[in-house]
UniProtKB/TrEMBL annotation:
This is SDR family oxidoreductase. InterPro entries: NAD(P)-bd_dom_sf (IPR036291), SDR (IPR050259), SDR_fam (IPR002347). Pfam families: adh_short_C2. Belongs to the short-chain dehydrogenases/reductases (SDR) family. SUPFAM superfamilies: NAD(P)-binding Rossmann-fold domains. It comes from Sneathiella litorea.
Length: 259
């Protein structure tokens, strides 16, 4: 299927590895030019070189902190009129809510709620004027089924979800959609970090926990960054203009509800 987005420009945040990289690669495979971001220059450049070598697209690699005013400004200078925006940021650390300070909450809200809102605000009007835009917020399955040790993430990502619900129905008239992809357990550094935290608190081995969690998923495995990226590319396509304000769960069937 031709997704109809070849030649367009996308900003993909936190895209040097993991789910962000999966999205960047899937978009590049469809001919989309990229501005990719991450904090670590070396990892980001490796990703950029890989994408340039595999697909005939332009890739701009901007190393920096997307959660800062300066980091966002640098990215937007490199791509002032994106057609696609993929908001993504590493989730805050797991833990017990008794231990979290106000500063912990402010960092979580800035990274996982306020930064995506600022990027949407900076780009959505131009998308509406050009009559095409696709905004994807990578959040978490915890938006639908909160995870007790991920309270910082639960709160911040739910806040972003509520904000998007209020504007996605206003922008679609101009062919600008705003949706969220909610990953469940994907084989990423984030998942491995969660396993380490559980292992530390329980005294069990990381491998034991990993095998148990994989077996407990209806799919019997964890998701891959490649399949996550493929879902992202479709929602960013010109075929998906009738999908907006949705929270699309990718979790191997782990969520037990009907809605």
């Amino acid at each position: 299927m031709d997704l109809g987005i070849s030649g367009k420009w996308a900003i993909v945040c936190a895209s040097s590895k993991g789910l962000g990289r999966g999205c960047a690669e899937a978009l590049a495979a469809e001919g989309v030019n990229l501005v990719i971001t991450a904090r670590t220059q070396s990892t980001l450049e490796e990703t950029a070189d890989y994408i340039r070598g595999k697909w005939p697209v332009e890739v701009k690699a901007i190393a920096g902190d997307i959660t800062s005013v300066e980091g966002r400004a640098e990215v937007l200078e490199a791509c002032p009129e994106p057609d696609i925006l993929v908001n993504n940021a590493g989730g805050p650390p797991p833990g017990d809510f008794h231990d979290w300070t106000l500063d912990d909450w402010q960092k979580a809200l800035n990274a996982n709620m306020l930064t995506p809102i600022e990027l949407i605000k900076a780009t959505v009007d131009g998308m509406r004027a050009r009559k095409f835009g696709r905004i994807i917020n990578i959040t978490s399955s915890a938006v639908k089924a909160p995870i007790d040790i991920l309270g910082l993430s639960n709160g911040a990502r739910a806040g972003l979800t509520g904000f998007v619900a209020g504007i996605a129905r206003k922008t679609v008239i101009d062919n600008v959609t705003i949706n969220a992809l909610l990953p469940g357990p994907f084989d990423t550094d984030r998942l491995r970090g969660n396993f380490e935290a559980v292992a530390k608190s329980s005294g069990r081995s990381i491998e034991e926990i990993r095998k148990e969690r994989a077996a407990g998923n209806p799919a019997g495995r964890f998701g891959t960054a490649e399949e996550f990226g493929a879902a992202c590319a479709f929602i960013c396509s010109d075929k998906a203009g009738y999908i907006t304000g949705q929270n699309i769960l990718l979790d191997g069937g782990a969520f037990p509800g009907t809605l």
